[in-house]
């Protein structure tokens, strides 16, 4: 049985395909919810597994709106190639987590991430936002099932 809960979302997503792909991955890897911050894409179906029936999608107008509606006890974790970000391979996932992926073309502004945990996927260039989200979800699931982490963390 998996401990904790988590959600994952995209800051100012550019394309509906990335939202749909992330939604499908979230369903496959056991996310409790997904979300978007800001609205730059047009809503249209791109979810072939009908994940919407199992994993809710929330929309927040701004980062302040998301922060005001965080689940009790959840930690905000930004997934960004940013100064001070921990390497995902060494990262200990919080029991309750809300992962925020940066926009495809400009990421998350530094001022929005100030004071929160950041994690990066060690690649020489940026990768597609839905792919990055899928990697983080896989990493969380694989570490949760390993004996490398005590029961109080993932």
Report on the architecture of this protein.
The chain is α/β, with parallel strands linked by helices and 154 residues long. The protein has a single domain, classed as 3-Layer(aba) Sandwich (Alpha/beta knot). The chain is 26% helix and 21% strand. The C terminus is likely disordered.
Q: Which class in CATH terms? A: Alpha Beta
Low-confidence stretches at least 5 residues in length (pLDDT < 50)?
A: 147-152
The helix/strand class is alpha/beta
Q: Per CATH, what is the topology? A: Alpha/beta knot
Query: Measured on Cα atoms, how large is the radius of gyration?
Result: 14 Å
Main beta sheet: strand number and arrangement? Answer: 7 strands, parallel
Overall CATH architecture: 3-Layer(aba) Sandwich
What is the strand content? 15-25%
User: Level of helix content?
Assistant: 25-40%
Compute the number of helices. 4
Q: Roughly what is the average pLDDT, rounded to an integer?
A: 87
Oligomerization state: single chain
Which word captures the global form?
Answer: globular
N-to-C order of helices and strands: EHEEHEEEHEH
Would you count the extended β strands for me? 7
Distance between the termini: 12 Å
CATH superfamily membership: SPOUT methyltransferase, trefoil knot domain
């Amino acid at each position: 049985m998996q401990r904790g809960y988590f959600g994952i979302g995209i800051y100012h997503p550019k394309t509906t395909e990335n939202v749909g792909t992330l939604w499908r991955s979230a369903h496959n890897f056991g996310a409790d919810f997904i979300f978007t911050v800001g609205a730059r894409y047009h809503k249209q179906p791109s979810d072939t597994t009908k994940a919407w029936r199992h994993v809710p999608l929330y929309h927040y107008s701004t980062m302040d709106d998301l922060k005001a509606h965080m689940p009790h006890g959840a930690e905000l974790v930004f997934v960004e190639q940013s100064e001070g970000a921990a390497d995902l391979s060494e990262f200990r996932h919080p029991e309750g987590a809300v992962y925020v992926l940066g926009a495809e073309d400009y990421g998350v502004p530094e001022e929005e991430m100030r004071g929160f945990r950041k994690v990066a996927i060690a690649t020489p260039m940026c990768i597609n936002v839905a792919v990055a989200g899928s990697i983080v979800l896989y990493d969380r699931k694989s570490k949760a099932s390993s004996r490398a982490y005590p029961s109080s963390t993932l």
